Amino acid sequence: MLIARSTYHHDYTGSRQAPADLPAVLAGVLAAAVTLCVLLLCASSAGAASTATLVIDGAGDGHGVGMSQEGALGYAEHGASYSEILAHYYTGTALGQAPAGAKVKVLIGNRVKTLALESYVRGVISAEMPSEWPAAALQAQAVAVRTYALTAHAGGTRFDVYSDTRSQVYRGAAAETSSTNAAALATAGQIVTYDGQPAITYFSASSGGHTEAVQDAFGGATAEPWLVGVADPYDQGPEHHWTVSLSFATAGRRLSGLVKGALEGIEVLQRGSSPRILSAYVLGSGGRTLTSGGELAARLGLDDTWAYFSVKRGSSVVAEPDRSGTSAPASPSPTTSPPTVPAGPGGGAQGPAGAPESTPTGGAVAG
Asked: Rounded to an integer, what distance in angstroms lies between the CA atom of residue 366 and that of residue 360?
């Protein structure tokens, strides 16, 4: 405005250039005004983004493949036996016997220790599941631990399993309790088999209400007929459902490298059967970046890849775009009867049911 007044005064005193210069000056003023408006709008937009919150509604704890420990607890509390529990989570399987005199090579620190199979099992059960849980749940855990030890080959020919959550947590004699030792004794030598062969028995803390197929949970894993997604109605533990809220600034920092420009949201593209996220776009002001559910969970600090995203601004909450075609499911309603278990192939029980996040090197999550 000072420029305009000064020019107008100059024109009033007789400058012959004023009429020619005036349109240019007015254009300059208009351009400055437009720029100021744009800056104000950008500042307003940035302010709105800074006050937005990314809300994540999720379920489960772990990879969700195979047996859910919280679900096993629920089944045991509703009268299911350990064979019924195992048959539910490992589709089409039977109970078989481990080879006589079987040994397990465990990597403890930098040293490989060779243990008798039953001694190893006793040192794992309470490290993976609370020892005060019902006998049927502990027995199911004992069989799953025993089978996993015989089917995992985390160290190739050097060792079979790690002593931590990369495989199963082994704490030796310090982990032994009367209840878990009784579970090991009651199931001595028993393993899960499919078509007569030992079947790797992944398990996790909580399925969130539905387990996941192994090929969808672990990138590059081969589909296995006993490791398919199944409803898990008795999984009702503390991680059955959870909600995480992050400011856009925090979420943007955690997704650094995946965000082009400023974070604008997350668009889910594909889900598995559970429905855990398989792929998604991280949306930024400068474009979008394709990522996996596992990467999102790891970056955002989520317990599981079962997640739905929305954005909260003030009292308004708007769901983020989701092209998976799967709406947020309600958990299946628990019934009051244990699963139906018809006879399975090769004897034993079978029921209706049924690696690390990207490379199968382990199948357990500490309980």
From this structure: 16
Identify the pLDDT of residue 326: 80
Q: How far is CA 285 from CA 42, 279, 313, 314, in A?
A: 12, 20, 18, 22
DSSP 218: S
What DSSP designation does 338 have? Answer: P
Q: Measure the CA–CA gap between 145 and 139, rounded to whole angstroms.
A: 10
What is the Cα 51 distance to its own chain's centre?
27
Q: Please state, in angstroms and rounded to a whole number, the distance separating the CA atoms of residues 106 and 252.
A: 40
Please give the helix or strand (H or E) that residue 278 lies within, else none: strand 277-284
Question: Of 242, 249, 243, 319, whose CA–CA distance to 52 is shortest?
Answer: 249
| H or E segment and range at residue 131 | none
Residue 205 has pLDDT above 60, yes or no: yes
Q: Is the peptide bond before 334 cis (omega within 30 degrees of 0)?
A: no
Q: Determine the average pLDDT of the residues in 133-153.
A: 98
Question: Can you tell me the mean pLDDT for 286-293?
Answer: 97
